[in-house]
Amino acid sequence: MTGRVVVAADGGTEAVLAAGRTPDAVIGDMDSLRPEIRARIPAHVLHEISEQDSTDFDKGLRSIAAPLILGHGFLGKRLDHQLAAMIVLVRRAAQRCVLVGAEDVVCLCPPRLALDLPAGERVSLFPMGPVRGRSEGVRWPIDGLDFSPAVQGGTSNEALGPVTLTLEAPLMLLILPIDCLDALLAGLERAPGW
């Protein structure tokens, strides 16, 4: 966490403190921030957004201006919170964000993405709405498929080597194993329009 700006989403402040870092900002409705933890945070670091119509992740993502955000703590604990985070990735498509979990990384796939992946890596595509695309370098090409949450997904595809994905709309989640994080970040950095 050193050398980077660290923003905590409400109760996530506790995990940041436990990692030995004071967050540079805390954003959220503060309903999960225990009083004894709040007392450890300077007042100017707290950015309370009291509305209850969005998640703390959404509040944070819409309040941050950064070229890329790595979101820790949004995968793995509660399924309902994970699903809500996926919705926010789509809702905030203009914000570049990669969710990082213990086993997986997840992002909203940009219109074109080239990844330098080794053969055999898992490449999962999960549509958040109707979307079509093309692929190169995967065992089961996606060309000609009409993806939709209720009809067609792309779970557990497999890289044959370097992978290129081209999508018609920002509605596809890309899920990769955690060991692909560096390859994903490099691919996102090169992605046109990103």
Your description of this structure?
The chain has helices at residues 13-18, 35-38, 56-63, 79-91, 181-190, and strands spanning 7-9, 25-28, 46-48, 69-72, 97-100, 104-108, 112-115, 122-127, 133-138, 154-167, 172-177. The strands form 2 sheets. Strands 4, 5, 6, 7, 8, 9, 10 and 11 form an 8-stranded mixed β-sheet that branches. Strands 1-2-3 form a 3-stranded parallel β-sheet. The mean pLDDT is 92. It contains 5 helices and 11 strands. Strand 1 (7-9), helix 1 (13-18) and strand 2 (25-28) form a beta-alpha-beta unit. With 194 residues, it is an alpha/beta fold. The protein is elongated.
Identify the overall geometry.
elongated
Q: Classify the oligomer.
A: single chain
Euclidean distance between termini CA atoms: 24 Å
| Unreliable residue stretches | none
**Rg, nearest Å:** 18 Å
Question: Which range best describes the helical content: under 10%, 10-25%, 25-40%, 40-55%, 55-70% or over 70%?
Answer: 10-25%
Query: Average pLDDT, to the nearest integer?
Result: 92
Taking the sheet with the most strands, its summary is: 8 strands, mixed
Q: How many strands in all?
A: 11
Strand content: 25-35%
Count every helix, treating DSSP H or I runs of 4 or more residues as helices.
5
Instruction: Quickly give the structural class.
Output: alpha/beta
Sketch the topology as an H/E string, one letter per element. Answer: EHEHEHEHEEEEEEEH
